[in-house]
Amino acid sequence: MSGTDLDPGSFYDRWTELFLAGSGPVFQAGILRTGDPPREVPERSVLALAERAGLRDGQRVLDAGCGVAGPATIIAHHFPAVVVDCVTNSSRQAAIARRRIVEDGLADRVRVHVADYQTLPFRSAKFDKVLFLESTGYATDLVATYREAYRVLEPGGSLYVKDVFTKKGPLSADETVAMERFDRHWGCVRTKTIPESTSAMAAAGFEAVHAVAIADIGTARLVGTMLSITHDGIDLTELGRSFFDAGLSGPIEFGEIVALKTG
Fold first, then answer.
1. Over 70: is that where the pLDDT of 4 sits?
2. N or C end: fewer C-beta atoms under 10 angstroms in the chain?
3. Annotated catalytic, 134?
4. Is the entire prediction scored with pTM above 0.70?
């Protein structure tokens, strides 16, 4: 299986190339269903999330936990005056992201930094928007994470989080074990709840204005990248041989939170 006894940075140093080859540059389990009929298309999902975050052209954006900068490059292509700084704690992800950014002709507007988003290497009040797209499960200190986001946002700036969350408890003993297994499997420190997240944001100084579960989201694309149809039936892909687990489940939900820096 996945060997998730690694810390998050080492986890992605080890597995990034496999994720990229298997499912492309948007490292997100949940993809918004868009279009008619609704489909899980990563590029459309990223742009829909950007719209839900209130992102506008010309803004300075921080992508905290950026993967290989897949969402950042999609946003930069769609918003020609946006500047995105990306943070990952995986040096391997950063190297791949920088190469892809140059190939896409975006090096003047998308930059990648190897850093911990709990101690950001940026001046205060630098950004208009901070995005966490399925990355807060890797935070060891959630309040410190959001304090840093608050610090680097300019007054009136906003925070947008779209993530996998643990459903509001209390959890049963079986559910607790299931979530511990889920976190180990995906290399997470711990998957948080929506109320825990909004409380941490408030402690950091934010005013949360929107915090809900997302219904129009799916994981069929992720599962599909782990399976292949052969003459003999269904087989596992290389990604699936490392990460597919039919018995892996837990009390999880996808959700989003918008919070403002009002001071």
1. no
2. C
3. yes
4. yes
